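Chapter review: from sequence to fold.
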Amino acid sequence: MPSLLRSSIVVSLLLGTVTAFPARSAAAGGGSGAAGDGAHIRASARVAQLYDQAATVTRQYDTGRREAEKQRSIAGRDEQLLARERGLIAALHQDLGRIARVQYGHSGGLPYTAHTLLPDSAKEVIASQRTLARLDLTVGNAVIRSRLAEVGLAAERVRASARWRTLQKRNGELAVMQRDLQTKLEEARWALQRQADASATSRTCQGAVHLDQPRRKAKRSWISPVEAYRLSAGFGSGGDRWAHRHTGQDFAVPIGTPVRAVGSGRVVRVTCGGAFGIEVVIRHSGGYCTQYAHLAAVTVGPGDRVGTGQLIAQSGTTGNSTGPHLHFEVRSTPEWGSGIDPVPWLAAHGVHL
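The token string follows.
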């Protein structure tokens, strides 16, 4: 089942959770043109930086929201427990009243209990009075325990309510930060896309933009090229933008979404311009190749070795594209026309979209 994108704000921010790299960047060769134009590098780094910031704010917001729900639940639970304890105390008080009436009620000079329970035996009357005394003590102790529980629950409810109000205030501040970051991220995306369009139009690759990122060892040998997405045009579908049939699988994602190698291999091609816009092709063991197209920026160059999950590009909408998305292909050769359906191919490698 494909992952579902959320609302426009949350979508962009949650996509940021798959990225954790600062904005420092450097141009490197590997394209067909110069090592990298400064404006393009800055635009790519700006998007990466904002994704990283958005990821941090989103994690804080999600954590705060979960904690706020927890504290609200605690306060509600304590309210219910308080009601139960108060009901129990009321019932115990009624029991104490009945016990007192039995102990002090007299009939014919004898305790009322002696007449009602054991009227024929003085010894048994005495025993029943002792039982009533013990019962009186037991109920009294139960009242005390309930009173203490009531006090403790009331205090905990007050604390939970105070924590909930504090968290709600902080979450409101984080929501404002989210909206501000979303605005900045949207502006940065389109600045990056304008630079990418200029590169694709001139068919001059700007070179690899190297974005520092933590080295993470992939837990699996194969993964999906993006982590949060909506599947759009599939393999073999037709439309205005392709002559006969669609040669890959499209992943609907915003501009600047981190694109990662689905498996380890070597970069055999980085090109700009044409129907696919900016694209990267990787050859994997076994001879199959994967293509990543309509990109806004690349972070690798021809000949580079890449590992599973390594950042190789940022998505865009260059070339023959109807909107921001990643076009992904699996080919038997690096060349167009040798494609196979990527969905079952990935499924055979343990990746279910």
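Two observations follow directly from the output. Residues 91 and 159 are 28 Å apart (CA to CA). Confidence is low (pLDDT under 50) at residues 1-36, 106-119.
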